[in-house]
């Protein structure tokens, strides 16, 4: 499975089995984390066999078996980069046969902060073997979130369709993508989740459109 196929197959999964992630896959995930941290100056960490990701009340009513997770952290103001790299990690995990869930609000913030040291956590990503493969989230239409000055090129359409597959806080998809020739811009307004959502959507758009076909403005 490549990253584009993973984008189509990845859905939010909140409940996981007790199956441990094999050591060779943990190594691959940590290598991916390291590359993201080095490239973008972040402090992402993968925690395995650790059940402290979400509070007890969430485990009781919403989540099950969350024993492995990425802490998405970096310097102050790195929310967008954390979202961007989070998208990369989720899709990469999907190519390895794993499932994921981006948790932006209902996670153990104090514990994540303690594990992150001086970095600022903006969320976690649960990762593991899901009890199910999840279901597609309700989505807006491409015309609801995008516009192009003139006839839309195929790469722009593909990028917008990919962006609509990105997870966003509360599934609001509160973003707008506009294009002129090969220049593309994105605006997003989802309160405290704006930065993370922007990064998640940008990564998906790039994957769908092909980074060689456009420039961000």
TrEMBL record:
Top-level taxon in the UniProt lineage: Bacteria
Gene3D superfamilies: NADH Oxidase
GO molecular function annotations of the record: oxidoreductase activity
Entry-linked Pfam families: TM1586_NiRdase
InterPro entries found in the cross-reference section: Nitroreductase-like, TM1586_NiRdase
Putative nitroreductase TM1586 domain boundaries: 3-209
Protein's name according to its UniProt entry: Putative nitroreductase TM1586 domain-containing protein
Source organism of the structure: Sharpea azabuensis
């Amino acid at each position: 499975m490549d990253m584009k196929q993973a984008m189509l197959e990845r859905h939010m999964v909140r409940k996981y089995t007790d199956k441990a992630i094999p050591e060779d896959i943990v190594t691959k995930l940590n290598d991916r984390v390291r590359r993201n941290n080095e490239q973008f100056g972040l402090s992402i960490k993968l925690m395995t066999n650790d059940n402290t990701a979400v509070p007890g009340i969430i485990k009781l009513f919403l989540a099950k078996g969350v024993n492995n997770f990425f802490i998405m952290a970096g310097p102050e103001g790195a929310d967008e980069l954390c979202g961007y790299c989070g998208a990369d990690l989720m899709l990469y995990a999907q190519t390895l046969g794993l499932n994921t869930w981006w948790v932006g609000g209902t996670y153990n913030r104090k514990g994540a902060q303690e594990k992150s040291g001086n970095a600022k956590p903006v969320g976690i990503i649960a990762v593991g073997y899901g009890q199910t493969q999840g279901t597609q989230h309700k989505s807006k239409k491409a015309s609801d979130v995008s516009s192009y000055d003139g006839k839309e090129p195929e790469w722009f359409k593909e990028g917008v369709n990919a962006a609509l597959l990105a997870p966003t806080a509360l599934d609001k998809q509160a973003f707008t993508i506009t294009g002129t020739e090969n220049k593309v811009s994105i605006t997003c307004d989802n309160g405290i989740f704006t930065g993370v959502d922007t990064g998640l959507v940008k990564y998906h758009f790039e994957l769908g459109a092909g980074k060689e076909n456009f420039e961000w403005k």
